[in-house]
Design a protein that fits this description.
This protein has a five-stranded mixed beta sheet. It has a two-stranded antiparallel ribbon with strand order 3-4. It has twelve helices and seven strands. About 20% of the residues are buried. Helix content is about 55%, strand content about 10%.
Length: about 425
């Protein structure tokens, strides 16, 4: 028993301290020489019998490798042709192949599951974005109908008010004429025969008409107020749905969905710097500026960085992004702007920086690099929106200026590309 244990220690997977084949393994010992020769014979047989993708001979080493590791026949045959294991090595390779096969299978299954989940997420978010767009269109229709009803009600109210004014004027005229014709008769005096005069009948009819018009005007005023409230509610609902649609479109694009419009057609007009809508977060400022931008090109990094930016004055950021779009308009000229872009930025009252240090970009490459349409871009020029103490008081907009002639950016048109927005990227000043 002891001899058997010693043999196993020398020849088994006791290679934990480094294994070498025993020198004098006899016929009665489980030495590695005989086992090694058998393995050599099987390896030689595997090399001698070429394998195809269709089938492997069941008794070859390649067949064992394919069975244990679940590799394709061609890969298993190629692995069998390698000089593995060394002659006399312990018979531990099958267990290693089994472990490797399990790892490969788990990796393939995980990759397939992740791909399937990503596709399902993209499809679901694309459907959500499509539904949101439909809801926006319906809300727009409801708002239009409410506005038309309110406009029609307002027109009817104005018509009744005009008729009431004319009736009251006619009433005053008839009453004055009646009083003139009566002369010295006192009020209430009956005409001969007790029959009321023509003027009295007309006055009574006009008075009844006045009362009727006043009642209609009061009803129209109530209806107009209700329609105004309904129109305002429809406008609020549409604005809320437009905001939701923008968010869903952004999520769909990030998930990899195809053919999802980021900008609604009604949002395409450029923003006026003196009439900027209110925004509450950095992401809202970036989304609104991107929706109305005519020249700036916003990359995915702009939205993803804005989502986590802690800056607390997004209104100022929105103003600078609108001004930056005018700088991009000057850069878009194919023949060049004829002067430093810094001068154009200063004219737009932007705190412009021409570039970042080479050291900062080299030491923090993951922060400064972003991409657009699969092309790598590097953050360099940037706008200092705010510089204060703490993350909530500091904001930067990092850019990449593309001339359209760079060989490594083939396919990207000339333009100003917006990269990271919000946090100050790492450099010598940020520690």
């Amino acid at each position: 028993m002891g001899a058997t244990g010693d043999d196993e220690e020398r020849t088994g997977y006791g290679a934990r301290r480094g294994w070498r084949a025993p020198k004098g393994a006899g016929p009665g010992r489980t030495g590695g020489r005989r086992r090694g020769r058998g393995r050599d014979d099987r390896a030689a047989a595997a090399r001698a019998s070429p394998a195809t993708d269709d089938a492997l001979a069941p008794d070859t080493l390649a067949a064992r490798i394919a069975r244990l590791s679940r590799l394709p026949a061609e890969d298993a045959a190629a692995l069998a042709r390698e000089d593995l294991p060394a002659p006399g090595a312990p018979d531990a390779l099958p267990a290693a192949f089994r472990a490797l096969g399990r790892l490969l299978t788990a990796a393939r299954d995980a990759a397939e599951t992740a791909r399937r989940q990503a596709e399902e997420t993209a499809d679901r978010r694309a459907r959500d974005a499509a539904r949101a767009r439909t809801q926006v269109a319906r809300a727009q229709e409801r708002e239009t109908r409410q506005r038309e009803k309110a406009s029609a009600e307002q027109g009817e109210r104005q018509r009744l008010a005009g008729e009431l004014e004319r009736t009251q004027a006619r009433l005053s005229q008839v009453a004055a004429e009646r009083d003139r014709l009566r002369g010295p008769h006192v009020d209430g005096a009956a005409r001969p025969g007790g029959v009321p005069g023509h003027d009295d009948v007309e006055v009574a009819g006009l008075l009844a008409r006045v009362f009727d018009l006043e009642a209609q005007l009061e009803e129209r005023a109530v209806a107009l107020e209700e329609l105004t409230d309904a129109r305002e509610a429809a406008e609020a609902e549409r604005d809320h749905l437009v905001t939701s649609a923008r968010r869903l479109r952004r999520l769909a694009l990030e998930a990899g969905a195809k053919d999802v419009d980021l900008v609604d057609p009604e949002d395409a007009a450029p923003l006026r710097a003196d009439e900027l809508p209110e925004v509450r977060t950095v992401l809202q400022a970036v989304e609104l500026a991107a929706a109305h931008a005519e020249h700036l090109i916003y990359t995915d990094r702009a939205f993803s960085s804005a989502r986590t930016a802690p800056y607390t004055e997004p209104q100022k950021l929105l103003r600078d992004l609108v001004a930056l779009d005018r700088v991009a308009a000057a850069w878009d000229v194919e023949t060049g702007i004829g002067r430093p872009i810094r001068d154009v930025a200063l004219e737009q009252q932007l705190d412009w920086a021409d570039d970042v240090s080479v050291t900062a970009r080299a030491q923090n490459a993951r922060e400064y690099q972003f991409s657009h349409q699969g092309r790598p871009l590097w953050a360099g020029p940037h706008v200092r929106v705010a510089t204060g103490r703490g993350l909530q008081r500091t904001c930067r907009v990092y850019l990449a200026l593309v001339k359209g002639t760079e060989p490594d950016l083939a396919g990207l048109p000339r333009g100003v590309y917006v990269g990271p927005v919000g946090r100050h990227l790492s450099d010598s000043t940020s520690g």
